[in-house]
Amino acid sequence: MADLDDRRIVLGVTGGVAAYKAAELTRLLVKAGAAVDVVMTEAAGHFVAPTTFQALSGRPVASGLWDSGPRGMAHIDLSRGADAVLVAPATADFIAKLAHGFADDLLSTLCLARDCPLLVAPAMNRQMWENPATRRNAAQLGADGIVILGPASGEQACGEVGEGRMLEAAELCEELVAFLQPRILAGRRVLLTAGPTFEALDPVRGITNSSSGRMGFALARACREAGAVVTLVAGPVALPTPRGVVRKDVVSALDMRREVMAAVDGHDIFIGVAAVADYRPVESRPHKIKKGSGNMTLELAANPDILAEVAARPVRPFCVGFAAESQNLDEYAQGKRQAKRLPLVVGNLVQHGLGGETNQVCLYDDHGVHPVPPGDKLSVARAIVTHIAGMLS
Ligand code: PMT
What we know:
By secondary structure, the chain is α/β, with parallel strands linked by helices. The protein has two domains: about 10-180, 3-Layer(aba) Sandwich (Rossmann fold); about 190-390, CoaB-like (Rossmann fold, 3-Layer(aba) Sandwich). It is about 35% helix and about 25% strand. The chain is built from 13 helices and 21 strands. It has an eight-stranded mixed β-sheet with strand order 12-11-8-13-16-17-19-20, with helices on both faces. A five-stranded parallel β-sheet has the order 2-1-3-4-5, sandwiched between helices. Strand 1, helix 1 (about 20-30) and strand 2 form a beta-alpha-beta unit. The radius of gyration is 25 Å and the shape is elongated. The two termini are about 25 Å apart. Bound molecules: ligand PMT. Ligand PMT binds near residues 193, 275 and 324.
């Protein structure tokens, strides 16, 4: 099932250069399963032709207040039954209109008449965004319950650099998907570990494993979508940080332990997804080890068990462990749960190694084993979050 299956989104496009990004946004929303009704202001038509949006959405594009819907009331008909209205880009002028409740074109009238959430993605020159009038208007939108996405900072179409760029289409799509998820972890603070650790032997070599970090990053995203405040302690991986998540990068198990222990106070939930190296070289050489003539023996020291240490604290968060096993999943996963006195362990069979795009897991708690339908790591992560929220409620 795609993220926006069975959803209908009204995408409002106003007259800014970033209107070109709205075309890509339309494509991404449709790809995610949404039915997308594009509503353009007259000014938007100076930047992108309606035909582009019609071709990408596969649906008629509306723009004039006097365009007739089935009942001659396009502003009502378009917004009824929509899951959300997203205005991207939203110009300073359009934000001002929304703040003051003007309704002099189809899009502003529709926003006023809507009975569903409204999200806006501002896009304008940095001085316009910083102008006290715009700040006042944006604050008013926030007070009215309108969600403001961005803007981002960076190079602008006018050549200036600063805050005011519209978020990228993929970021807006991710934000909308997140917005539509149930807020089952609202008010909770979640700390996670993800990825492998790297235990250095010398400046160029070390002991690690093939964890990609995908499962932990997907869980961080799913927790944030569910309304939690999320901190992610990540071993060395090449993954973008999920939006809205605070990320702390570490290398070794000792680094990971230090970051977790420094952050854990005040967290309601701790999820250990990382494949932490059980051992590290007793000595990490300052210079590259030279090849000798015979075999070489490495002496390894046991690493601290971060999850066990968190779970043993007198005041502990709700602790979730992971178990990656190539055989006897039930036995080993339950064994880890009991050894560390964890309310929940997520067991995954990893007969073909770590690092894939999909996962198949079972959840182990006091009530037994709960298989999760296999799927991409984000859908598995959402199922885990639902289970955690259920256990906490
Ligand atoms: O990153 P991906 O490629 O997406 O792969 C995801 C994963 C397979 C790595 C993940 O789903 C997973 O199963 N992670 C746990 C791997 C494992 O079996 O770890 P373990 O048996 O060594 O540890 C059990 C639990 O204790 C884990 O929650 C682990 O994070 C934690 N632990 C282990 C050792 C240690 N020193 N400190 C820990 O906190």
